[in-house]
Amino acid sequence: MSKGIRIKGYRRPDGSCGIRNHIAVISTVACANHIAELTAAACPDAVAITHQHGCDQIGLDLDLFYKTLLGVAQNGNVAAVMTVGLGCEEISAHDLAEAVAKTGKSAVSLVIQEEGGTSESVKVGRERLKKLSSSFKPSEEEIGFEELIIGLECGGSDFSSGIVANPALGEAVDLFIREGAAVIFCETTELLGAEEIIIQRSASAEVAQFILQKMNRIEEAAAAMGTDIRGAQPSPGNIQGGLSTIEEKSLGAICKIGSAKIEHVLNFADRCTERGLNFMDTPGNDIESMAGLAAGGAQIIIFTTGRGTPMGFATVPVLKVCASPKTSRVMQENIDVDLSSFFKGDLSIIDAGRKIFHTAVRCASGEPCRAEILGHREFGLHRIGPTL
Amino acid sequence: MKKAILIYRGDNVATMIEDVCTSENVELSDREGKTLSFLQAVESIDMGHKIALRDFSIGDTVLKYGFPIGRVAADIKMGERVDVHNIESRKGRGDLRYQAFETGMEKQK
Fold first, then answer.
1. Is A352 on the interface with B (CB under 8 A)?
2. The pLDDT of residue B109
């Protein structure tokens, strides 16, 4: 199966692999964000993971919150974890750190109400972080593509996404899968209109049924609100970029899955354990979707865009692929793979796919992508219930 | 001569890959760059937007990628721009179901 492309990776105690060595400083509640950021700022390997949630969440929404944070902490790109909490929130920072430590990964916690105010907490936090960062040695080794989980994402789509960037990514996906990688495509909303393709491409009736049920949930949500999803799907930017309906956007987006059958399905933030083509149920919102992919174990995300977006992710390199001649010029510093020469007749879809593949291999081997160079470390959570 | 791409044989719209002005000729080609046919733009269409390859009446289905991308909401002539002003989505239309529900309620009265 594998032709044996080897890349530099880091083995974690639970057997998983990373292609980056981040220390994740995870805030368990919005109240702890500033202290998490100040603490992380003192350590070059640390990245603060902050969000506006963690308080007044209940039931399945709270479960998903915990599952997402734990999944992101367990991701192979994370070498060690520090959790930062306030002390009165639903998910205790100590418990989350303990759950991470159970996987063998070094993890410590900091609770503000136990340490004192902002200054004292930051002081103690920085000491703990310094100790944590010197307490482990990442074991570097050569790994193959069978150790990689590759997330697929698109955002700010336009006409060029469906004609060039997504079909080219599809060609690259075929190569990744041939090399033994696991690939996850997601964004359930952006499948509406591609039902027939989903049915044709699902490896089993169960896989097709799972995906169609998730899609139906969006139809139900629109019906429950008595509104249509136009205005958000496609977005005003999509429409300016030539996409008139969600069907048109979806039929262009689905081109990115290549020619493999959809073998496995995952709920949001489920751990991906199977090679080949996986589907994960995520919303069309890019940052929430990428949090799901990271929690699922994706060590690299390949992100096609038409209108252009600078977004990265806290602990995962996000490679930007763009075929729009205008965006590739105007937002050049944000684009890793420029496919705009297709429109001059100088690039075939197959060659465009190879270009994505080789850039991804270099990125997986340690070469920073544009979002990493520019300091993009975005993070966001997907909610399925109201804040009480 | 301005270029448009036909993604799938049988599609009834194509994507302009250059801006085109009223009355300008358009060369239709496939994704591999092979010329398929020619038509005339009857209005200006920006790069990335769709051009009608035939006349459409209200209710017709617009095909791109070989699949329906929406329903025609206002008559369209060959060579015109096909966009949100004359086609509409059939997915995620909670408003249509709400209208159907309201109409059903009226009938019951």
1. no
2. 46
Amino acid letter, B40: Q
DSSP per-residue string spanning A19-84: SS-EEEEEESSGGGHHHHHHHHTT-TTEEEE--S-SSS--HHHHHHHHHHHHHHHHSTTEEEEEEE
The rounded distance, in Å, linking the Cα atoms of A235 and A228 is 12
The answer to whether A386 faces chain B, any CB pair under 8 Å, is no
Cα separation, A255 vs A193, whole angstroms: 13
- The SS3 call for residue A210 is helix
pLDDT single digits (tens) A91-113: 999 999 999 999 999 999 999 99
Judging contacts by C-beta atoms under 8 Å, the chain A residues touching residue B4 are none
What phi and psi, each to the nearest 5 degrees, are found at residue A217?
Answer: -60, -30
Q: Find all residues with CB under 8 Å of A141, minimum gap 6, and list them.
A: A8, A9, A10, A11
Task: Give the per-residue pLDDT at B98.
Answer: 63
Which of A160, A226, A343 lies nearest to residue B95, judging by beta carbons?
A: A226
User: How many Å apart are CA A50 and CA A312, to the nearest integer?
Assistant: 14
Q: pLDDT tens digits for A235-291? A: 999 999 999 999 999 999 999 999 999 999 999 999 999 999 999 999 999 999 999
Mutate: best of B7, B20, B84, B89, partner A, most A CBs <10 A: B89
> What is the gyration radius of the CA atoms in chain B, in angstroms?
17
**How crowded is the C-beta side of B12, counted as CA atoms within 13 Å?**
19
Q: What dotted CATH number matches A22-137?
A: 3.40.50
Q: Domain extents for chain B?
A: 2-108
Q: Do A228 and B50 touch (CB under 8 A)?
A: no
Instruction: Count other Cβ atoms within 10 Å, centred on residue A232.
Output: 15
Tell me the domain boundaries of chain A.
22-137, 146-373
Yes or no, beta carbons of B95 and A158 under 8 Å apart: no
Q: Is the pLDDT of residue A320 over 90?
A: yes
Predicted confidence (pLDDT) per residue in B4-47, tens digit: 999 999 999 999 999 999 999 999 999 999 999 999 999 999 99
User: What is the C-alpha radius of gyration for chain A, rounded to an integer number of angstroms?
Assistant: 20
pTM: 0.95
The class of domain B2-108 in CATH terms is mainly beta
The Cα diameter of chain A in Å comes to 64
Nearest CA to CA, how far is A309 from chain B (Å)? 18
